[in-house]
């Protein structure tokens, strides 16, 4: 992100309804998850007390995705998180996770920078298609870290056409690369 945005302020009313202060409308947890997948930071506060409820709602979003069968976190990671709360002082898990996600985000940004127009490979035919596919792959692999993957799409839901297109483009790129050699 070139410019840091202020977090999107969501206010929770006494009725537990969530209110988006930018668009002046009510939102759901799934809406909030969508904002986060799009790369937006959110802050959720209780209107009456002013308490920051962001952490509570983010955990609730993860729990709802897990309950629908979307494996957000491996069981081992969940066990380690629970164990880290049992250690006096909270252990090092929160700092470790933050550092890991920061490294992942930085690596992703560095990879995208390397694929920029300054790269001599950018002159190669089909480079833009390859770059778009790489961006989509990174977005899917990093999930909620900087984009969003909400789960796999079966071929009967239209994913097959996209997969066929990607396979065709990949074959074309491989053919062009072999001709360059």
Automatic annotation (TrEMBL):
Signal peptide: none annotated. Residues 9-69 form the PHA accumulation regulator DNA-binding N-terminal domain. Pfam families: PHB_acc, PHB_acc_N. It comes from the Bacteria. Residues 73-112 form the PHB accumulation regulatory domain. One of its GO terms (biological process) is regulation of DNA-templated transcription. This is Polyhydroxyalkanoate synthesis repressor PhaR. It comes from Tritonibacter aquimaris.
């Amino acid at each position: 992100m070139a410019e840091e945005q202020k977090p999107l302020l969501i206010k929770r009313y006494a009725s537990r309804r969530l209110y988006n202060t930018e668009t002046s409308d009510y939102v759901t947890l799934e809406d909030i998850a969508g904002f986060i997948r799009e790369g937006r930071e959110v802050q959720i506060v209780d209107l009456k007390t002013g308490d920051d409820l962001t952490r509570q709602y983010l955990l609730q979003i993860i729990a709802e995705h897990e309950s629908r069968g979307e494996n957000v976190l491996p069981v081992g990671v969940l066990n380690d998180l629970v164990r880290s709360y049992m250690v006096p002082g909270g252990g090092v898990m929160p700092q470790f996770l933050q550092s890991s996600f920061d490294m992942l985000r930085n690596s992703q940004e560095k990879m995208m920078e390397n694929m920029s127009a300054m790269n001599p490979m950018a002159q190669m035919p089909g480079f833009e298609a390859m770059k778009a596919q790489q961006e989509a792959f990174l977005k899917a692999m990093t999930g909620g870290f900087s984009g969003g993957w909400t789960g796999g799409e079966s071929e009967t839901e239209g994913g097959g056409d996209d997969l066929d297109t990607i396979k065709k483009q990949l074959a074309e790129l491989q053919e062009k690369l072999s001709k360059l050699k």
